[in-house]
Amino acid sequence: MRRHLARAVLAAASITATALAVSAQDIKVGFNGDVSASPSALSGQAGVIGIQAAIDDINAAGGLLGRKVVLVVRDDLSQPPKSIQNMSDLIDNEKVAAVFGPTNSGNALAWKHIANQKQVPVLGMIGSATDITKAAPGVPNYMFRVSMVDRSQVAGLMAYVKAGGAGKKVGYMAETTGYGQGGLKDIQEIGALHGIKPEAVEAFAVGDTDMTSQLNKMKAAGVDTLVIWGQGTPLGHILRSMEKINYFPTYLTSWAADNKSFFDAAGPQLAEKPLFMRTITDSRTPKQQQLYDRVSAKLPTPSAFGFLAHGYDSMMLLGAAIKQAKSTEGPKVKAALEALEGKHEGFMKTYEKPFSAENREGLGAADYKWTRWKDGKLVIAEDGVISSLKLSDFKM
């Protein structure tokens, strides 16, 4: 099913490109990410649909600088070497003005140096690893993002742990991928800021289906609160493993728990246990609902709508920067993104100076919502601890 949807996404992009009769005068933008292989592929598919929806609106209004915009999609299959190859192809052969993606954080970390060296702006709208938008001292930074950021999410989760009571015994679990280990680094560092010392730290692979060994160690250590970082499918299998040993500590996790792959792996009842953060729930604003109604038939799953909105807003902000720069040249677009003028109505929020020379994150902790599954829908999570938290509690 996932591969069928991926082919549909790629075919739609190809059909659109053909219909626009791609020429040297068109402005090409690229997407480099997984739309077929990993547990996060549904997010990539939704992101592509969102970018294309924004492009359709831009072209209907006359394009950018009097030119049509065309999206070129490259599936990286969740493989860093393939993602690096795609990046070079999009920049060197397709001559794209900017790149969106990737789906998996580890791939961005593998190729972001290419974007910086070749001076091509990247707008991340799925991968959330903290280090994606960081650059080495003295290196021009062409990485921007309109999505969740792991460190901001972790700041919320660890604030929740701290506010939950001094007697809590905390354990950490993380996937062995770059995404999981980057999240674990944030968890450990922010936990230390709160004076939280874990009773145990365990790892799991993205393909693992039985985590009873790791969980039995947590149980033996008396852990009553687990902070877990990984992709959707293994997060669901952790719940199945908890069920096997009848061990259900408080479960705080990454936003990958919003993925249908998590829901399917966990099942409807167990899926309701974790608490996480995301940018959009099924309690959509009227404006978000309008976009959802427009694109819902194309979505691989309703829960992926947030990634679609990220893609739409990212393309909208890029378009505003190209207009302001009056150019598609990388350095000029980068400078425009860093000093974007006016207000820009997106589906996530109204953006006003979303980026700067120092800040690469278009969304922050104030834009996140506490979320959990309920009756198959993503709903706003509420409890006494959440209601007691203030943004100042989110230590970074």
Description:
The structure is a single chain. It contains 13 helices and 14 strands. It is of the alpha/beta class. It has a 5-stranded parallel beta sheet, sandwiched between helices. A 4-stranded parallel beta sheet has the order 7-6-8-9, sandwiched between helices. The longest helix is centred in the last third of the chain and has 21 residues.
Which labels suit this protein?
2 domains, Rossmann fold, five-stranded parallel sheet, 396 residues, alpha/beta
CATH topology of the largest domain: Rossmann fold
Total strands: the figure is 14
CATH architecture of the largest domain: 3-Layer(aba) Sandwich
Portion of residues in beta strands equals: 15-25%
Q: What is the H/E string?
A: HEHEHEHEEHEHEHEHEHEHHHEEEEH
Strand order of the largest sheet: 2-1-3-4-5
**Superfamily (CATH H level) name of the largest domain:** Response regulator
CATH class of the largest domain: Alpha Beta
Domain unit count: 2
Number of helices: 13
Distance between the termini: 39 Å
SSE order and pairing:
Blueprint lengths: L1 H18 L7 E7 L7 H20 L8 E7 L4 H14 L5 E2 L4 H14 L3 E3 L18 E3 L4 H14 L6 E6 L2 H16 L6 E5 L7 H9 L4 E5 L2 H14 L4 E4 L6 H7 L9 E3 L7 H10 L9 H21 L4 H9 L4 E3 L4 E3 L16 E6 L2 E4 L3 H5 L8
Parallel strand pairs: 1-2, 1-3, 3-4, 4-5, 6-7, 6-8, 8-9
Antiparallel strand pairs: 10-13, 11-12, 13-14
Helix pairs in contact: 1-2, 2-11, 3-4, 5-6, 8-9, 11-12
